[in-house]
């Protein structure tokens, strides 16, 4: 299953007096098979993470603890999402420029990816990203 649309996805939430539980599974709650996961934490005030896009990787961003914002571009179209619920995440398809910012102190952000780490997959320059986006998507629109 593949999708080129950014979207918020609610995860199952099992409510229990002893504490709530949420989960996700390959190709079920998220539209890809999980290859890698990593998390961001101890972000100093005012710092940002990301500032890049991936050529072929899709990701799913979940705020496990606290709150953060994700600023996204698909081409020159900008969207900003505030994530602050651990049972709701944000799906980012390939070629989505992202910046994760405005972390509340103590926040922990989990990222699930459909590919293994590969430094060659990163687009770290915004102008290079825009040119790649136009080449990939403007020809089909």
TrEMBL record:
| Sequence ranges assigned to domain Sugar 3,4-ketoisomerase QdtA cupin in this UniProt record | 6-131
**InterPro entries found in the cross-reference section:** QdtA_cupin_dom, RmlC-like_jellyroll, RmlC_Cupin_sf
The protein in question is named: WxcM-like domain-containing protein
SUPFAM superfamilies documented for this protein: RmlC-like cupins
Q: Which domain of life is it from?
A: Bacteria
